[in-house]
């Protein structure tokens, strides 16, 4: 009888531990998702991309924009970075501000492409200069080889 009672008590204790661990896992998972959302927002804000902050496409409708804003604002804690989400929505909700933002965004993208093109050009210039130097080195080594082989023959 005592053994059966002890067994039931142990079983109840194990089930309580399992429930506590499961709740902790769920809490940890939710916290990890919140951290991932905040990380996405910070990354998008650092890149100065308001569309990425709200996770919408530049061609989205005002209705989709508002829905995305409400979704993001709900997922982010009010004390943490909600101002970034709110600022992004305010900027994109107004048609005039959105048009200006899209134009500035296109200009920044064009500047980035131009900088990347210049960087590639500089890199290939260095590579070609290095290759020319190697060909000269090979030519000199070849001439030295011919002169030495002629002298030894």
From TrEMBL:
Residues 1-22 form the signal peptide. PROSITE patterns: DNAJ_2. Keywords: Signal. It comes from the Eukaryota. InterPro entries: Diphthamide-biosynth_chaperone, DnaJ_domain, J_dom_sf. Residues 49-105 form the J domain. This is J domain-containing protein. It comes from Chrysophaeum taylorii.
């Amino acid at each position: 009888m005592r053994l059966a009672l002890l067994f039931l008590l142990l079983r109840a204790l194990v089930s309580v531990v399992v429930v506590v661990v499961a709740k902790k896992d769920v809490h940890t998972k939710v916290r990890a998702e919140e951290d991932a959302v905040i990380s996405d927002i910070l990354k998008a804000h650092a890149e100065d991309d308001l569309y990425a902050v709200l996770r919408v496409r530049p061609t989205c409708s005002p209705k989709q924009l508002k829905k995305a804003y409400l979704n993001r604002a709900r997922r982010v804690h009010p004390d943490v970075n909600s101002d970034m989400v709110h600022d992004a929505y305010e900027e994109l909700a107004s048609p005039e501000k959105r048009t200006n933002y899209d134009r500035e965004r296109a200009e920044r993208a064009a500047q980035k492409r131009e900088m990347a093109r210049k960087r590639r050009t500089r890199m290939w210039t260095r590579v070609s200069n290095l290759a020319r130097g190697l060909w000269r080195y090979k030519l000199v080594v070849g001439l030295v080889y011919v002169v030495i082989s002629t002298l030894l023959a």
